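Morning!

This is the sequence you dropped in the shared folder:
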Amino acid sequence: MNRAYYGASISTFLLTEESKIIGDLTKAHGQELQHSQTIAWAEQIRLLHLVFRDIAVNGDIFFEFMIPRMGRRADVIIITGGMIFVLEFKVGANNYSFTDRMQTMGYALDLKHFHEGSHNKYLVPILICTNAPDQNITLKFNSELVADVLCCSGANLAILINQTINQLPLSSIDIDSWLAASYKPTPTIIEAAQALYSNHNVVDITRSEAGSINIAETSTRLFEIIHNARLNRQKVVCFVTGVPGAGKTLVGLNIANQHATPKDDEYSVFLSGNGPLVAVLQEALSNDLYKNESVKKVDVGEKKLSKHECRKRVESFIQNIHRFRDNYLIDQAKPPEHVAIFDEAQRAWNQQQAAKFMQQKRGFANFNMSEPEFLISVMDRHNDWAVIIALVGGGQEINVGEVGILGWFDAMNNMFKHWHVYCSPNLLTGEYIREGIEQSTLQSFHQEQSLHLAISMRSFRAEKLSSFVHFLIAGNAKAAAQVYKNIKSLFPIVVTRNLDQAKAWLKLRTIANRRCGLLASSNAIRLKAEGIFVKNIIEPEKWFLASADDIRSSNFLEDAATEFDVQGLELDWSLIAWDADFRFMNGAFQHWRFSGTKWQRRLQNEQQRYLENAYRVLLTRAREGMVIFVPFGNEADNTRLPEFYCGTYQYLLDCGLHEI
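The structure's back. Tokens below.
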């Protein structure tokens, strides 16, 4: 991958004409180029030519350098004096906004974390607003060797760089080794979707070489299956499995994004029953599209799309599965899409739950199909060919009536035997199927290992986090402690009985573009006494996307999100508030539900599993670390007795976690 659109030694850069550099940048850009971009490049080049004529330094300079996590490019990277300078230009800006400073710091942090060659290097982010007054800022590095953002107009950039180099003499950086170092991006699903929508390759935004290969193999094979189904006029179901955070949703979005227009012969739609995920993705992508349209209007005076039109474009290929279902209950036509990607397919409703909902909420008294049966029947309306890609997670059912993967198998056997089935061998293991499956069914499946994503990309600091959470929820403190011993230096997890202390710990670590949030189980009703209201309805798109200074933002740590709000989405840092619904007493976890005015035991295995999976979801949302808050309880309140909480807190300590 071409990490920079232009790169050269500083001496070569000084001898190269502005027009030649812009020509190289334009050629490397390779996409529709806005006039404002070339103006910005010219301003940057002229300024940096002046800077390096004023100071005698050796080193290298890169324009439009790919930032690993976000699939975006930093304006300029300068490597000199043993330091890495990350420059973000705001040509014409007359103030150093909070958003711009956080963007600049975010670039530096992401380069630090996701580019191996930068791990142990000093990074200096500089925000250059060409019409703003210069600021006097003391150079200060944090524990990760990343400096606070320096702000300047550009007029004193030469002095700033020179002073920084002289203040901290360091050994020079071997540029060849730095460029050849491993590149390990790990975007959130929101950032990944934005990058894909901006025409970045899916491989460019995956975490590691192994992860890239895994994602690429799965995506390539799915495109082949889709293409062959069209050519051979076949109907196919593909089951794609993967470990938590391996990129199943990313693979699905990649397919939908590449075949997102109705005129495409292999027109695809991404469907999810995860309402918050759909809302957040639609909001993020439509906002990006609208911003890009605004740039077009400024550059060439074309009529730009309205916000509503941008929203409609995005909604055409990312849809809520329930709206898709309801539409085709009434409309008996075949859908325009030949390819339907169903996210979290294991969470589709069984026949009883689907019929109950259809009768009570939609008025269809005679509905008698499971959700998989109905969804396949809709795609089966095509006379020629159709493909269903079912993305399957293990241990993620968190709601009543979720059918699991056997519901899809039953639908195929009972009604759609003419459909071909592709799956990974992993699909047939206990992680995905709890009950047995007939051997005759297995023999009809095409099993391919490429349809399994084996490498987690969610947490760049601790790929073993899911293993730790597994042992923790299973009540195996010894095994959990052993796993945590190997990841604690990379993925800090701490516990406390003080909520204010937990928030303070988290806010110290949530800087720049990092995101934190307060999480709790949907049945953590008695956390209300601590000021945590799980019954309060949040707006997921505001909670996940609003800026850190917006009170609706997750970063404010005021509104708690539950497992239903965050499944399939991620935070960088999380605060888990632990109530007495899942309490550790007498050497084992107990499962409770708060109803009315008191706690009631959950006795059914299915209900216990839903609660365990709820906490599994909460404990696996963070990418960099988390703090767990367990209340003290109150002896005067029978719903919050101290013994409901003390055993849990001690158990977490026994799992190797440290108190703050």
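Headline: The domain at 465-659 is CATH 3.40.50 (Rossmann fold).

More detail when I'm at my desk.
O.
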